[in-house]
Amino acid sequence: MADLRYQSSAPARARAAEIDQGLRSYMLGVYNYMALGVAATAIITMFVASSPALLATAVSLKWVFFIGILGMGFLAPRMIFSSSSFAAQGAFWGYCALWGFGIAPMIAAYMAIDPGMVVRAFFIAAATFGATSLAGYVTKRDLSGFGAFFMIATIGIIIAMLVNVFLVQSSMMSLIVSCVTVLLFAGITAYETQLIKEMYVEGDGSAAARSKSIFGAFMLYGSFVTLFIHILNILGIMRSE
Is the pLDDT of residue 1 over 70? Predict the structure, then answer.
C-alpha cells in the first residue's frame, strides 16, 4: 500500500515541481523586463539632463509629460493585451521614455546639488521595492481586496500633489505627500506582485505569456519609479532643512 501511495503521488509531485519552475521563469521574465525598462529610463534621463537644450525642452513640457504618463497608465494595459506585439512593446517602451523625459529636470537639479543623494535614493527604492515585492510573492494572504483602496488612494495622492504645486507650495506638505506615497506604493508593490503571480497559467500560448510578462513589468516599473522619485524628494527636503 505504501509503495502504491508513493507511486501515485510521484507524478503529482513532479507536476507541482514543473509548475513551480514555470512560475519562477515567468516571474524572472517579468523582473528582467522591468529592469530593462528602468535602465532605459535612466539612460534617457541622464542623456536629457546632460543636454541644456533637451533639459530646457523637458522643463517647458513637464506637464505634457505628466499628462502623458497618466494617460499611458490607463491606455497601456489595453495596448499590451492587444493582438499586436508592436503595440505591446510600444506601450511599454513609450511609458519608460515618458518617465525618462518627465523626471529629467528633477534628477538634473539633484545631481547639481549632490549626486550621491540620487544614488542613495535609488538603492533605498530598490531595497524597499525588493522587500515589498518579495512579501507580495510569498504571502498567503489574499491582497485583492486592497485594489479599490489603492486606486482611490493613488487618485487622492495625485490631487494632493497638484494642490500643493498650484496652491499651497509648501515643502512640508510635499514631504508629507512623498512619505504617504512611499508607504502607499510599498503596499501597491506587494499587491501587484501577488496579482502578477496569480496571472500565471501553465500552458499559456506565447502571445498570452508575452502580454502577461510585459503587463507585469509595466505595473512594477511604475511602482519602482514612483518610489524612487518620492524617496529622492524626501532626501532632498530633509537635506535642505
Answer: no
Q: Which three cell numbers stand for residue 19?
A: 509548475
| Residue spans per domain, the chain | 2-240
Instruction: Give the closest residue to 72 by CA, choosing from 47, 36, 98, 100.
Output: 98
Calculate mean pLDDT across residues 38-52: 96
Alpha-carbon distance of 11 to 225, in angstroms, equals 43
- Contact between residue 73 and residue 222 where contact means Cβ atoms under 8 Å apart: yes
CB count, 10 Å around CB of 30?
26
Cβ(100)–Cβ(40) below 8 Å = yes
Q: Is the pLDDT of residue 212 over 80?
A: yes
C-alpha cell at 78: 489595453
Q: At what angle do helices 171-199 and 115-138 cross, to 10 degrees?
A: 40
Q: Which amino acid is at 23?
A: L
pTM of the model: 0.90
